[in-house]
Amino acid sequence: MKLILKIKSILTALCAVILTISILLTCSVVTHNKSLNSYYNSQIERECYKNIYIYDCNGAPIYTGGFSDDKVLRLSTFHIVGDRNKSITDSLLTSTYPNLNITSVFNGFSPTKKEYNLTIDSNLQKDAYEILSNNAYHGCIVVSDYTSGEIKAMVSTPSVDVYNTEIIEDGAFLNKASLSYPPGSVFKSVTVAAVLEKNPSAKDFKFTCSGKSNHISCFNLTAHGEQDLSDILSNSCNCGVSAFAKKYIAPDYLDLYTENSNILNSSVISDIKIKEGNINANDDLMWAANGQSQNMVTPLGVVSFYNAIANDGSQIQLRLLKTTMESNTSEIMSSTTASFLKNALAGVTQNLGINCSTFGKTGTAELDNAESHAWFVCCLNDGDAPPYTVLVFLEHGGKSSSAKEISREFINNTILSKEDSR
Ligand SMILES: [Zn+2]
Question: What's residue 272's pLDDT?
């Protein structure tokens, strides 16, 4: 009997040792797998996302219960779709669509199939991503239909491939279309609209530029000479715009008009909260009028403002999801002001080589200790072209000519050629 008890206690001890070893082994496998699979794959098969289906404006699949096998599509839509770790603040896989009541869908288990149709055209989206990444630019491209507010493309680089997270570049989780940056001269149109809305006869303003006036200077101290208001805009004359603002408006009024024009608005795109912009013209009206000083705007805010110019003063709230809900519309300028801006800004794009009638504005936002940001916003103003505003923002991209070049190539080779083939 004693022997049996002894064997029993030895067996019990052995079992305990085996159990401990197996627990330790399991723990080490889990830890090992975690590090191997990086931070995504642990959740890759989570049930809560299996019933979600996301399509583009033509019904082409973007996310069908799992990420697409098309790598360029995955990368180009990453900042819209998001990931299962909710790394992107304002994406579909994050709970930021309260107006459409889809919070619970993306935030937890969805027992039934849910389908969402975006306003995005995945062909434009992919081409926009490729042109930025092939040229090694960090920044964003936004395309919007100014007659409906629909976003047709919204791409931010660098991006993240959810299936390969070995190397993630700095800033890859940020959607640059929704962050705020100094706008530089793309803001000049806001100043001109603000003045003309208050005083329509100011359209006859004339100014002789010597390259420098008070503490304001033009780019490279270029003396633009005698100009009317259209020339001032198309030459992007800093001295002219600051003299124009100083003559007709007070700083508080420029701040108020800018706020009312929604360019700073964190709700400029429905259902997503983006970064709020900023202006404080009391700090320095003359530079603020030129988009410098403390001005900060989002690329989406700039698109929304230029949409209004192209749409005869009527601004339709931007949107990313196709819905039958009525869009918010604001009249932020008269059709007369819009028409003046369209004609004046056509001077900026006339020799650019874009194969349709356009108007637009460049911006080089100079920074104290870093390469400038390059902006170019361009509206297609031609019955034969789609009614799109196209914005290219290159973070630390240098002069605005870089953004112009990307725009020209993207509009000619993607937007216009795809339109021809339809
Ligand atoms: Zn000038």
Answer: 74
